[in-house]
Write a structure and sequence with these properties.
Length: about 425
């Protein structure tokens, strides 16, 4: 896949001619696309239907990466586009995506609860898009009409499912130690559309950027979901989400974190995941400067890794004036690194056989006024491109079978691990 994906990325501005949707297969395939701290996850069902959860950041970089995957997989229509919430790193690429490929059904939680749009003029533009297609406002308990897959909405608009799913309904012991955390800065996060996807015995969960206290509402005192196989880590693995009540209650076998170099995959996230019962592996889109040496998984499980000289420069740089230790993390998991530690403005040429990297400086948001000033250091407290990584962009792929067996593949190094049905 790596060599052919490289060819597609070389043609970043070419949209493939219409072709048949992906052929029916025996697997549910999930492509966790690198939007560098944003979110875009493509599901292709065994019947060939497509669901895209979120559309990444504004600008050509994320658009080209999403289109490259759609082209590589033979997708010429998105059957359902789920917007978990209206933050720039989740919906910033939607308008450009809609120009490049038909979108049949726009799925969301309803109007934004934030008065200031992170993408200027988005709600009006969005209304124009869904007026020409289908628009589905979901609520907890709803089921998306997808053949062969049970796609349940478990959170939306700040509310959580009340009726247990099959396998759920048991008391959640992890609720006993829960300590609330108030978060009033970004209320849209708590509105996130959350999905539980079941294909035979395989179960995956994606909750967008659902917040800590909303996780309690979902999972306590009883767990309505039950145990799952794959946890697409909430909120990029930042500290306002990913509580023990959620993670330990779900008891995932595998977690995949959609982080950036300086956004997400924090120490707290690592500790909670690694202490979770049944967890076998953590996979990440990026090597995290937040996690450092102790709290990143082995390189085999990381899709994108900066050049060794860049990592060394960041880790060995002196701390900001008046502070000791490594670059500190804000409440959103963003370190405040000294400017001199940022990766170089242009990435080195990729090695033979690698996909070429998108230019780290050529793809700022289309309108600089579209998003408020980023907070929390280079990574951007509210999301967005942040500091780009050096080198090519790779994704993580999951292929699940109906018997519960699933395989995760790192497209950077070709490493795969298969998890047998339990």
């Amino acid at each position: 896949m790596r060599s052919s994906l490289a060819t597609v990325l070389c043609l970043a501005f070419v949209v493939a001619a219409p072709s048949a949707q992906p052929k029916a297969s025996k697997t549910l395939d999930i492509y966790v696309i690198d939007t560098e701290g944003g979110k875009a996850t493509l599901f292709i069902t065994p019947s060939g239907e497509t669901v895209l959860i979120d559309a990444g950041n504004p600008g050509q970089r994320d658009h080209d990466r999403i289109m490259a995957v759609l082209t590589e997989t033979g997708v010429n229509k998105i059957d359902h586009l789920i917007s978990t919430h209206y933050h720039v790193d989740h919906i910033g690429g939607m308008q450009e995506l809609a120009k490049s490929i038909p979108i049949a059904d726009y799925v969301d939680h309803g109007p934004s609860v934030e008065p200031q749009e992170q993408v200027k003029g988005f709600q009006a533009a969005y209304a124009e898009l869904y007026a020409k297609a289908k628009h589905t406002i979901v609520k907890p308990g709803d089921k998306l009409p997808i053949a062969g897959v049970d796609w349940r909405i478990v959170t939306a608009a700040g509310k959580a499912i009340k009726t247990p799913l099959p396998g759920g309904g048991k008391p959640n012991p992890a609720c006993a130690q829960f300590k609330p955390r108030e978060n009033t800065r970004d209320p849209e996060n708590g509105q996130s559309v959350g999905s539980v996807v079941t294909f035979g015995k395989f179960r995956a969960v994606d909750l967008g950027d659902l917040l800590w206290n909303n996780e309690f509402d979902l999972m306590c005192p009883s767990n309505p979901i039950g145990a799952i196989d794959l946890y697409l880590t909430s909120h990029h693995g930042t500290d306002p989400s990913g509580s023990e009540a959620l993670v330990h209650g779900l008891a995932p076998r595998v977690a995949i974190t959609q982080n950036g170099t300086r956004k997400g995959a924090t120490v707290q996230t690592s500790q909670i995941l690694n202490s979770s019962p049944n967890l076998e592996d953590i996979w990440q889109l990026h090597w995290s400067y937040n996690g450092g040496i102790e709290h990143n998984p082995a390189g085999l499980f990381i899709a994108n890794v900066d050049e060794p000289t860049v990592i060394a420069a960041v880790l060995t740089a002196p701390p900001p004036a008046g502070r000791g230790g490594p670059p500190p993390s804000t409440g959103s998991g963003q370190p405040t690194a000294p400017p001199s530690t940022a990766p170089p403005a242009s990435a080195p040429a990729p090695a033979a056989g690698q996909a070429p990297a998108a230019s780290p400086t050529a793809n700022p948001p289309a309108d600089p006024a579209a998003a408020p000033p980023r907070q929390g250091g280079p990574g951007g407290g509210r999301g967005g491109p942040g500091v780009p990584h050096t080198g090519a962009a790779f994704l993580i792929k999951v292929s699940a079978q109906a018997d519960g067996t699933f395989t995760v593949t790192n497209t950077r190094n070709g490493f795969s691990r298969t998890y047998k049905a339990r």
